[in-house]
């Protein structure tokens, strides 16, 4: 009989243990604090010109600027960032750098069955290219490629674990990572690397600047002014760049193009970082091979070790706020942090007494096709990408090349993809968006409590290509 309580609820630790573990934690992004050499860049003041202006200093914008200079070292490239390089999703994510360009095989195969094999091959090549770039560009970002384990924590998930080639029995998975909740799992050895997210962003900026990109922080773009033909004026409060081409990499933030505004919504995701584990605590968990780890539910956790032997524990709650805005106050959600801490000790009861040092949240760049979309506007002078839906660390590197191909008017293997040419269905305006998203989350939660079974509405949305998966 299916139980209406998850394993995390059934194995919940005492509330006092959770409170004590969270008590000394700081609401701050560990990764951003742990990137001491971060370079700083002056705001844009006055008027200048460029061949290409990139808007947004996250991974997508940074890879675009780097790739543009590598393609054409003589090109004049500017990058404008509204706040600081990597402060948003790129500096606060889990650091799982996955090969998949389609937010997992199921989504890719369902949406683009004809080109799925090609998408998988391009994704694998992108991850290999990423690794090669880390070496070639000297990106000091704690890159490692241990693969990823997905763990079955409910018996019905064992069938999913057995479906892939890297099946691990209960004994095998517990030798890798010791949790009494793990019933089995799957180790994808090739498809995932781990990075230090903030250091990756800061290193990409350093490389871009070394290649000659003019980077400006605290330079929020307020307007793209265009005449029928000719260059685009990219305007900030204190300056402007007259540009032949513009690449928008503004992710979940309000798009400078009206047509793209309803294509993404921010869904808030929460994370905790522990203090460094002692040698005894490390021995109690195992994890010699340092894989990325997730569980198999619709609402999943993502978990990974750091270089200095902490554990990052994030995910599960995914919160949409009415109106779809990005707001700092949404990051303060004690109930989500308490739930995460409780699930952590349910997964690793042998670590009772360990403390969390950092807690933070970030907005997931969600769109209805669950992976990045691309396009051109203003007569082909402005290219854009967004909508990575929580899997953009690897895919942003691929997206950069797509946007540059599009802006160059090039016909490439990338630009011919249906995935690149398809536009996701926009989210409806409020209040429908809020009701729909809340209902999807509720249905997924119910499914996780009922052997993964989805209700009638979820199955209908799946068939329409709108099913919501974390
Ligand atoms: C908590 C969390 C965990 C995640 N975990 C993972 C993970 O483990 N693996 C994974 O693959 N993905 C993960 N993701 C998703 C991943 O971080 C993103 O997909 C990726 O960082 C997107 O990069 P980006 O450059 O598009 O966006 P961002 O990093 O958000 O950068 C966009 C930038 O554009 C700037 N900007 C916006 N508007 C303007 C404007 N008008 N003018 C100037 N600048 C502007 C913003 O200030 C921002 O710096 C996670 C996301 C979150 C929030």
Strand tally: 19
**For the terminal residues, how far apart are their CA atoms?**
25 Å
Structural class: alpha/beta
CATH architecture classification of the largest domain: 3-Layer(bba) Sandwich
H/I helix tally: 16
Bound molecules: flavin-adenine dinucleotide
Proportion of residues in helical segments: 25-40%
Summarize the structure.
The chain is of the alpha/beta class. It has 16 helices and 19 strands. The strands form 3 sheets. The protein has a 9-stranded mixed β-sheet. Strands 2, 3, 9, 10, 11, 12, 18 and 19 form an 8-stranded mixed β-sheet that branches. It has a two-stranded antiparallel ribbon with strand order 4-8.
Describe this structure in words.
With 470 residues, this protein is α/β, with parallel strands linked by helices. It folds into three domains: 7-33 and 148-189 and 265-366, D-Amino Acid Oxidase, subunit A, domain 2 (D-Amino Acid Oxidase, Chain A, domain 2), CATH 3.30.9; 46-138 and 196-264 and 369-421, FAD/NAD(P)-binding domain (3-Layer(bba) Sandwich); 432-464. The chain has helices at 7-10, 15-23, 30-33, 59-71, 89-92, 105-111, 116-136, 158-163, 170-176, 197-211, 279-285, 334-347, 395-407, 418-421, 432-449, 456-463; strands at 26-27, 46-55, 77-80, 96-98, 148-152, 167-168, 184-188, 192-194, 214-216, 221-226, 232-236, 239-248, 265-274, 292-295, 301-305, 311-319, 356-366, 373-377, 382-386. Helix 4 (59-71) links the parallel strand 2 and strand 3. Helix 2 (15-23) packs across helix 12 (334-347). It binds flavin-adenine dinucleotide. Residues 55-61, 80-83, 87-90, 92-96, 98, 220-221, 249-251, 253, 256, 269, 271, 302, 362-365, 388, 390-394, 396 line the site of flavin-adenine dinucleotide.
């Amino acid at each position: 009989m299916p139980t209406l309580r998850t394993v995390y609820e059934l194995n919940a630790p005492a509330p006092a243990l959770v409170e004590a573990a969270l008590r000394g934690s700081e609401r701050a992004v560990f990764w951003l604090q742990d990137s001491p050499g971060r370079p700083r860049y002056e705001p844009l003041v006055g008027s200048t010109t460029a061949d290409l202006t990139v808007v947004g200093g996250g991974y997508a914008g940074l890879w675009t600027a780097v790739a543009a200079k590598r393609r054409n070292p003589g090109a004049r490239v500017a990058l404008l960032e509204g706040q600081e390089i990597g402060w948003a999703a790129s500096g606060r994510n889990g650091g799982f750098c996955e090969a998949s360009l389609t937010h997992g095989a199921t989504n890719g195969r369902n949406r683009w069955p004809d080109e799925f094999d090609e998408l998988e091959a391009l994704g694998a090549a992108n991850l290999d290219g990423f690794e090669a770039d880390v070496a070639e560009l000297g990106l000091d970002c704690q890159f490692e490629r241990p693969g990823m384990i997905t763990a079955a924590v409910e018996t019905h998930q064992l069938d999913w674990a057995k479906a892939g080639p890297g099946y691990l029995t209960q004994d095998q998975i517990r030798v890798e990572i010791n949790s009494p909740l793990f019933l089995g799992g799957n180790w994808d050895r090739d498809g995932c690397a781990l990075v230090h997210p903030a250091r990756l962003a800061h290193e990409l900026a350093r490389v871009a600047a070394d290649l000659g990109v003019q980077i400006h922080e605290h330079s929020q773009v307020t307007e793209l002014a265009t005449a029928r033909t000719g260059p685009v004026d990219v305007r900030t409060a204190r300056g402007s760049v007259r540009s032949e081409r513009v690449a928008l990499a503004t992710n979940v933030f309000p798009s400078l193009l009206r047509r793209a505004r309803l294509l993404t919504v921010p869904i808030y995701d929460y994370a905790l970082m522990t203090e460094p584990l002692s040698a005894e605590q490390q021995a109690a968990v195992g994890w010699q091979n340092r894989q990325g780890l997730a569980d198999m539910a619709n609402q999943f956790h993502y978990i990974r070790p750091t270089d200095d032997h902490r554990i990052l524990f994030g995910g599960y709650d995914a919160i949409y706020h009415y109106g779809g805005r990005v707001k700092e106050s949404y990051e303060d959600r004690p109930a989500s942090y308490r739930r995460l801490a409780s699930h952590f000790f349910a997964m690793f009861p042998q670590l009772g007494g360990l403390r969390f040092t950092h807690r933070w949240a970030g907005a997931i760049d969600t769109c209805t096709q669950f992976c990045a979309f691309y396009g051109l506007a203003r007569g082909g002078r402005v290219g854009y990408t967004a909508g990575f839906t929580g899997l953009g660390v690897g895919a942003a590197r691929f997206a950069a090349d797509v946007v540059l191909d599009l802006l160059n008017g090039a016909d490439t293997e990338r630009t011919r993809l249906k995935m690149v040419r398809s536009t996701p269905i926009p989210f409806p305006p409020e209040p429908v968006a809020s009701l729909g998203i809340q209902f999807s989350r509720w249905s997924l939660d119910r499914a996780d409590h009922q052997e993964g079974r989805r209700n009638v509405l979820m199955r209908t949305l799946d068939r329409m290509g709108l099913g919501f998966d974390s």
